[in-house]
Amino acid sequence: MRLSPDQMIFWQHGFFKLNATIVFTWGLMLVLAVGSKLITRKLTTEHTRSRWQNLLEIVVTAIEKQIEDVGLQNPKKYMGFLGTLFLFVALAAVCTIIPGYEPPTASLSTTAALALSVFVAVPLFGIEEQGFGGYLKSYTKPTIIMLPFNIISELSRTLALAVRLFGNMMSGAMIIGILLTITPFIFPVIMTLLGLLTGMVQAYIFFILATVYIAAATRKRKTKQEPAPKLETTTN
Amino acid sequence: MLIDWFTVGAQALNFLILVWLLKHFLYKPILNAIDAREKRIAKELADADAKKTEAQKERDEFQKKNEEFDQQRAALLTKATDEAKAERQRLLDEARKAADGLSAKRQESLINDAKNLNQAISQLTQKEVFSITRKALTDLATVSLEERMGEVFTRRLHGLDDKAKTVLGDALKKNSEPALVRSAFDLPAEQRAAIQNALNETFSAEIHLRFETSPDLVSGIELSSNGQKVGWSIADYLASLEKGVGELLKEKDKPAPKPEVTVEPKAESPKPKEKPTPTPEVKAEPKPEPAPETKTEAKPESDKKAESETKPETKVEPKPEPKSAPKPEEAEPAIKSA
Q1: What are the backbone dihedrals phi and psi of residue B69, each rounded to the nearest 5 degrees, phi first?
Q2: Structural domain boundaries of chain A?
Q3: Which residues 230-249 in chain B show a CB within 8 A of chain A?
Q4: ipTM strictly over 0.95?
Q5: Scanning every residue of chain A, which has its alpha carbon at the shortest distance from the alpha carbon of B40?
Q6: What is the pLDDT of residues B217-264, one digit of tens each?
Q7: What does residue B232 show for φ and ψ, rounded to 5 degrees?
């Protein structure tokens, strides 16, 4: 029994290896990129448009709306990063209905990579918005005493982000695997449905947390400690 | 170990690549398309707004023009109506005036016609009556009548008042020529003598007389000298009667005159004798008095005869005239149609 698709290795050459995580990720990337390309190739600005274009427009505008709702003034600027996070995680979860597929997000390596991306992106966006000094100063708010706790918070929430997603996605696959041995009929289907729901919820949580972190980092008035812990406690 | 660091790096890279890819293939085109559409819609809406405002403006303008047109039309209409009314009134007035004039003229002409007709009828009647009377009297006037007349004349001479007498006497005396005595018939010598005597007596002087016959007198005797005249004749009565009837006719009574014309001559014949003053005219007052006398005296005989004879005649004749005229007319068509 393997806990992660990382352990399914197709090809290895020293440090380089090609495991299932990377392969499935490429597959998802291919689907997303080619699908987008195919649909957006025939975009129209007329009043009538294709259903696929409608779907994509709904998705994109929904993401945009969410980012805006959290409090980021210029959603299009963060659209690429945050939207991709959501779409990748969501598609990875949705594709679990395909037999033989294992979600790359069920690998701690992937979730760690995503969390690290957020961990790097938040200060970058913060610095871009407030300047280097301004961003660093935000760690000393409300008092200088809070500096170590702020730093710990940065690290811990990144860890939490990675582990939360990994735990949920892996547990879904694990539960189905275990249930198959106990009740091979009917019940696993329900659990698969539940897994889909969980995956979508996790995708949304991952996306919204990242947005909140960035929003907190780019906001001049800092109260960034509060939202993250709250969400963590509630979602876990 | 759950974390494979190579995989972490690879996934991070993959993720970044995916970000770029989606940015390039998904977000940008979709957002651009949405923006373009929104812009397009906004533009279309703006265009629509512009068109709407333009249309509104045009509509307002049109409405304004319409209102103006309506006002103008109403003004023109009222003006035309007023003019037509005035014209109608004028025409009506004119027509009424013309009609009034025509009817007045017509009435006038009718009145004139009626008057003329009346006049013609009365004149004709008068003329006829008098011609009949005249004819009857002429027929009746015989020598014996003339004798009576001579008597009447002489009596009248006697009856003259003093003033008349003196005037006439002066005239007779002054006149070197013999006085003229006119009569309808030749007077017999006796009568001439009687007249001569009467004159001589009356004026107590020798008066030369010249006798003459004149049928104009109808029946009577007249003495004229030096512009002065004394006489009695039926012609005088007739003349005065004619005059009286003419005056009566002028008083317009249409129905009355006709019967009166026929009746009066006989019934009233005595009265007009007050008027025969034509003879007295000359001598003024003196005669009115004798006149009635002479008449009343003179007529009993002759008048009674005349009346008895003339009545039927006069009554019969006037009628046939008006009737005889229409009768042939009526009869002729009747015959023709028959």
Answers
A1: -60, -45
A2: 5-235
A3: none
A4: no
A5: A45
A6: 666 677 777 677 777 666 777 777 777 877 776 665 554 444 444 444
A7: -140, 125
